[in-house]
Specification:
Elements (H helix, E strand, L loop, with lengths): L1 H10 L4 H17 L2 E8 L9 H28 L3 E5 L1 H4 L1 H8 L5 E10 L13 H4 L4
Antiparallel strand pairs: 1-3, 2-3
Length: about 140
């Protein structure tokens, strides 16, 4: 992933010092996380349609299903007292992820989760009352 990330940052004309800093930060997140989960999509059992409109809709449904699974993963981690962060790095380097993890070719990496015990517990935010943010006509 770092090699692909470097190519993208070089195309953005980022100075070498900035590239090195971004790569170090990215590596640190991955290497310091107690658990890293890569969530993948496999569309091999999705319905096939002869027209682009329905084929595109089927792909969107698959992506939405993966996103829903990711949201459930975050909720489950939180329920167990864990901290979790969702990142989308695998979308930018899918072949590198598949190769390094020896994933089946039909699996499409969609997200990466860093999971562990948080160093600190964030303050609970005050939730606004529904009446204060909703317009009723």
């Amino acid at each position: 992933m770092a090699a692909d990330f470097r190519v993208d940052l070089e195309r953005d004309n980022m100075p070498e010092a900035g590239i090195a800093a971004r790569l170090d930060k990215s590596r640190s997140k991955i290497n310091s996380s107690p658990v890293v989960i890569v969530l993948c999509m496999d569309a091999t059992e999705m319905d096939e349609y002869p027209d682009a409109r329905r084929a595109d809709a089927e792909r969107v449904m698959a992506i939405q299903s993966v996103a829903n699974a990711g949201a459930q993963l975050l909720l489950a981690a939180h329920a167990e007292g864990l901290g979790a962060v969702w990142t989308c790095g695998p979308l930018f380097a899918p072949e590198a992820v598949k190769s390094s993890l020896s994933l089946p070719q039909s699996w499409e990496p969609q997200a990466m989760f860093f999971i562990g015990y948080p160093d600190e517990t964030p303050k609970i935010k005050v939730v606004k009352k529904l009446e204060g943010i909703m317009v009723v006509e």
